[in-house]
# Entry
Amino acid sequence: MKTQTIGNIRVDRVVDMEGKFAALDFLLPESNPAEIIAQAGDWLCPNFLDADDQHVMMSFHSLLIRTDRHTILVDSCIGDDKERPNRLPWHHKKGPFLDNLRAQGVQPEDIDYVMCTHMHGDHVGWNTQLVDGRWVPTFPNAKYVFARKEFEFWEKENYQAQQEGREAELNHGCWFDSVLPVIEAGKHQVVDSDFALDDSLWLEPAEGHTPGAVILHAKQADDHAIMVGDMLHTAAQLAQPSLSSRFCWDPVMSRETRTRVIDQYCETNTTILTAHFPSPTAGRIIRNGDAFKLDLEI
Ligand SMILES: [Zn+2]
# Structure
């Protein structure tokens, strides 16, 4: 992804992991991969979808925002060293994420805020790192911002899971290794789902993928971008917006949110910054026959 500029806000991508993820009809259980490739393969393949084995190409990255006042990390990916036996590519992973961050000229100490669009394990992982056998906040000077509805849902779910001895199964146990240590360090801030970080950056509820998912707006003068998280999980959902992912908490609500946002920003100058699309990762939504596509000329 090229550096995106929204007024004097700068957004860059910091990659944790990327490559082939899974079959399209695993990620989108109601999809017909052959139909999608026939309909939209001209722009989806090979970058977002492998036409031969019908597997989705995925990126797990953070969006690094720099304003005049703050340095902000949106969605902290998978993390290293995590116990993830139910997803082997993530299990005890060692990756270049912090080197990729430093390559952008940013040290972990420089991050002022860490935000997540929702609290799945691939969006909170780098909240913490393993130091001397303990999970500690990776970004020592950051406030970790969580949307209240999302936070309270997962807090309750994880309490329940812990009572039942299945805390390692729920979201791969990410609450315990990637959220709880941040709370115990007193570095979290629970905010409303329309929280404004400043005049140029604010949250908007985008529920469905999870109960309290949010998107993040960045706007200065006529420049506008939205960071959409997993509301758009894969580019194939622009070809068929009705398709929700298997990881959606409420597939019907997820579809409604996705359709609303696509309709609202289609053919506008709003840049869509995605959480899992491989580079170019950012683009504008344009019409493509009866469906939509990402304008990649950005
Ligand atoms: Zn995700």
